[in-house]
Design a protein that fits this description.
146 residues; single chain; DUF7144; membrane; 5 helices; mainly alpha
Amino acid sequence: MSTQSSYATERPGRAGSAPPMTGWVGMVVFGGIMLFIAGLFHLFEGVVALADDSFYAVRPAALALSMPYGAWGWLHVILGVLAIAAATGIFLGMLWARALGVLIAVLSAFSSMLFLGAYPLWSIILVTLDVLVIYALVAHGREVRN
């Protein structure tokens, strides 16, 4: 008789029941928290762009995608709100939230790379957070379920 056992081998689940959660659920929660923080950062960045366009290091024409800072501000505010909504859904174990979280993280990383000339350190922090979110939600997203 084996001395190693797990919940799955001791108590077989009913047909259609979800497998037991593993320790990787913490990684998904981490991804949700990072997505929430990235959403807050996008909100801050968007509000600054809307309130004071002279704050940034370069003029909009010097960015990779030349748009007025007001347009950048609204883009960041929308990304921030969507990221916070997706993070909330991730905490609730919703599949749509994980998919939306990955999409938002990809869009966030892309927009942050385009915005790199305006505020390099902030953009690098956001890209790093986005990569962590994508990894957590794609590699271990199935660990959290509703």
